[in-house]
Amino acid sequence: MTVAWLAAGLLVTVAYPLLDDGTPAAAVLYNGFEVATLLAVLAGIRRRRPVHRTGWYVFAAAVLVRLAGDITYEIYRQVLDEPPFPSLADVFYLATCPLLAAGVLLIARGRLARDRAGLLDSAIIATGLGLVWWVFLVGPIAADASIPALERLVGAAYPVSDLLLLAVAVRLLTRSGRPTLSLALLTAGVAGMLASDAAYQVVTAYAPDLEGPIAVGWILANVAWGAAALHRSAGAADPPAGPAAPRLGRGRLTLLAACTLLVPAALFAQGLTAGAAGVDWPAIGVGAVLLFLFVLARMSGFVTEVQRQAGLLEELALRDALTGLPNRRVFEERLTAAVAAGSAQVAMLDLNGFKDVNDRLGHAAGDRLLQTVAARLQGALREGDLVARMGGDEFAVLVPHATPAAMDQVVGRVVEALREPVRVDGHELLVGASVGTADDAGTTDGYEVLRRADVAMYAAKQAGERHRRHTADLDVRAADEAWLGAELRTALDTGGLHLVYQPIVSLPDHRMAAVEALVRWDHPVRGPIAPAEFLPVAERTGLMVELGAWILETACARAAEWHRTLGPAAPARVNVNVCARQLAEPGFPELVTTTLARTGLPIHHLTLEVSETAVLRGGRVVRTLEQLHELGVPIGLDEFGTGHSSLGVLDHVPADLLKIDRSFVGSITRAGRHAVIATALLQVSDGLGLTAVAEGVQTAEQAAELHRLGYRYAQGDYFGTPLAVPGFARSDVAAIS
């Protein structure tokens, strides 16, 4: 419908100049199209049901009043054969401008609201242009004594009313935000009418023969208005109101500067052409004062906005954006001051299981959890205490002028505040915290106090405790761990690590069915370092992902070599341990497939073992295991039976192999609970079609009892200790079914 209207309007625009101005045909075409414009506006109001319907009706009234003026004008000119100026037509024409301005402003009011900067910019531009308009157009007409008084009054009223349109057009053009197409068409129509009015006032004075072509501009204004009402964006709701930014780009700044310079420009122009006596001092003086006040208000608003934004930036620089708590910078500044005053107590808190929440429920849930924890921490503190978010899920508490006993009370309240479950997205989340505390005894360095609390916090987390106060021996352990991490990094880079392989055998014949790859570290100074000592360090320092990738690559390459050189005498599978941190890494399934392809090991010759406690985290870990299982990689659950919900794990984790923990094997030869549990676990694995492997077999009696209970596979030092090159013989090889 809008396209059809535009096409019809362009046809009228092209056809009108072909008709002689002042003829009945031209009048019928011109006024007929005005009638069509009025009908189009009313049809658009009815069809689009705009939000600011009152404004559209006022706008339609403006079109109607202008139509009445044009018809009256033609009656005077062609029917009564009387001069149409001044006449009743002028009353209609002059009434059009206020109606048009009111209608457009009512329509656009939602998009002009709260835009103080745009309002002042439009006032500056309108004042500058209006001064020129007054000095060179309105003033000369009003001062020309040769023109009858009524004609002078009416003639001066036209440019004055156009000043109102000028202000409206400038206000629309300086609005903030992107306009709808409907509002853009309205603005174009107002600008077109204003340009045509100005041109008409010029040509009537200097070139009356050009009056006809000026009407094309009014026709185009009607085309734009009809299209604005018919377009679907006429019914669009206003955007949410918000404070407008002081948009003072290069283009707008240039325009504002040019408009303020119109005052001296008008002064010079009148002085050069008419002398000092011909200068319109009152008009130029009023214009200069208004421009000064508007520019002053504009710059005041700009400075205020800059100061407000500077305050916001300062606030952002000192506050954590997520929780609203003070950030590390504020905490360190306050800590330095508290240590200087003496008796400062600091606590570092690290949430337990926060990564699992992110993995299972997503980062949005993790963010809401942090916000709730922050609020609870604030509520647990005394007046004058400070809690800050240091990053991630770590928080710090500063208690100035306090004793260790007082700090212990604060920690107790904090732990109690975190004991209550946090409800996030319908989930009840139990979130605890490992807390480390320290004081400023023997130091005046705030960073040293913070380091002590951090060391104590990691010691508490490692020991599974809620709270640990810093002691000197923790520094020794932390230094040793830091040394161990650095040495492990060096060993990984220089080849200081190697793998050994322990057989997994079938019962009762003890034939080798698979081997488990185990990492070993022989330090050049300290000698052999147990995996239980360096693997937790690798986890905490982030080296576990890289170390795990190296273990996977090395084990697959060695297994592929055995299959190439030994053929059927090679172990059917190599078992490689992976941790939760590796499984949580994006792209771990791709790492496994590329490693198998690079080493040439078939996928069914690899089994990935993961501890039962690791899969209890759920989330990304379980999704990664599912992806690996779909690729055809067998999955083994290691240390099965030691987790919090062992049987529940089997319900949602894809598994092919269960390795029964050594804690149930050690006393299997004595009738008791462990023998019953071992039997039950075997029955569960058989019922689910899984292969059960008993770990930690040390004696022939244990092996015999496991076979009697029904176990077909076992592993332990009794069958062979881990070796870099196990002794393979064809008769010793079996396959895990």
- Count of discrete alpha- or pi-helical segments spanning 4 or more residues: 27
Radius of gyration: 43 Å
Sheet with most strands: 8 strands, mixed, barrel
The percent of residues in helical segments reads 55-70%
Query: Could you name the ranges where pLDDT drops below 50 across 5 or more consecutive residues?
Result: 241-246
Provide mean pLDDT, rounded. Answer: 85
Proportion of beta-strand residues:
5-15%
Structural class determined from secondary elements: alpha/beta
Strand order, largest beta sheet = 8-9-11-12-13-14-15-16
Can you offer a commentary on this structure?
The two termini are 74 Å apart. Helix 3 packs antiparallel against helix 4, helix 6 (116-143) runs antiparallel to helix 7 (149-173) and helix 6 packs parallel to helix 10 (250-260). The chain contains 27 helices and 16 strands. The chain is α/β, with parallel strands linked by helices. It has an 8-stranded mixed β-barrel, surrounded by 5 helices. Mean pLDDT is 85; it is low at 241-246.
